[in-house]
4-diphosphocytidyl-2-C-methyl-D-erythritol kinase
Amino acid sequence: MSARVTVRVPAKVNVQLAVGGARPDGFHDLANVFLAVGLYDEITVTPADELRVTCSGPDAAQVPLDRTNLAARAALTLAERHGLGAADAAVHIHIAKDIPVAGGMAGGSADGAGALVACDALWGTRASREELLDICAELGSDVPFSLVGGAALGTGRGEKLRALEVGGTFHWVFAMAGRGLSTPAVFREFDRLNEGVRIPEPVASQELLDALAKGDAGALAAAVSNDLQPAALSLFPELARTLDAGRAAGALAGLVSGSGPTTAFLAGDAAGAEEIARALLDSGTCRSARVAVSPAPGATVV
Ligand SMILES: C[C@](O)(CO)[C@H](O)COP(=O)(O)OP(=O)(O)OC[C@H]1O[C@@H](n2ccc(N)nc2=O)[C@H](O)[C@@H]1O
Ligand SMILES: Nc1ncnc2c1ncn2[C@@H]1O[C@H](COP(=O)(O)OP(=O)(O)OP(=O)(O)O)[C@@H](O)[C@H]1O
């Protein structure tokens, strides 16, 4: 056991998000093609007298520091499963947050997966990969992917993962919006917009999987899709201007990341990404713009 563990966890973009009809449990079946991108939160755990969460970074004020924080929930779930008492499981979790909050990039999920891996190392609980994935799925639909990183197809509510091959580096620009969007609200809007419509079963696009496997940015750009985009745009119409600005600046594709409101732009190369980021900032249609590459590794002890 060591006295301090830091874990780095990436954000994600959904290059395909096919959404089925609402299930009886309120969730939606998905064909969710996740790609981890090189924007990271770092979670550091140290022994303490009681469970405590702190957070730093530009969006820190929006992060809950109580037991609803996914990082705290991860620590409590691991402790409970391994029969650790309150004193043994007391830990200070610090989140150095670089992933936008409520941005559709799985920031909270990253912190859940990171705290889980960090506490497992700190406490010497030696949970199997299978158990870690099981706890992640209990915490949220996106959390298992935050653990594994790379690229994966998520089915069910997104928690059942199959690793995907990625044959090259993709260059992205992410435009952060001035406010967040609630994921449940975006799924509710999806249901409202599709009322009375027969929604087909979600399936992954073979063209998209081939483009990923080849590392072909042009082919990936032609195949990206997000069924939640109309719902995110309906709740946040100004995002259409951001999408227009990124496309006008030469992006191969522009789309809403997951449930939004972060927008993602695929560039042909690193220089193109820098140019698009500058144009997005100059357009005044976003709060900030960041470049990042994919794929990125999952939760990693640093
Ligand atoms: C939009 C995505 O980020 C795409 O990766 C995910 O589907 C959302 O994953 P998440 O934030 O981990 O979501 P969860 O914490 O599991 O669920 C939050 C809420 O989102 C809705 N939800 C989520 C996942 C899913 N497959 N169907 C849903 O309808 C439900 O209303 C649920 O109560
Ligand atoms: N560690 C955390 N970091 C950020 N938000 C958290 C965390 N734990 C709980 N939350 C809550 O979760 C909400 C969603 O935050 P998050 O940043 O995960 O959204 P998101 O990136 O849109 O999620 P996703 O892409 O998985 O749908 C926040 O508004 C906050 O109330």
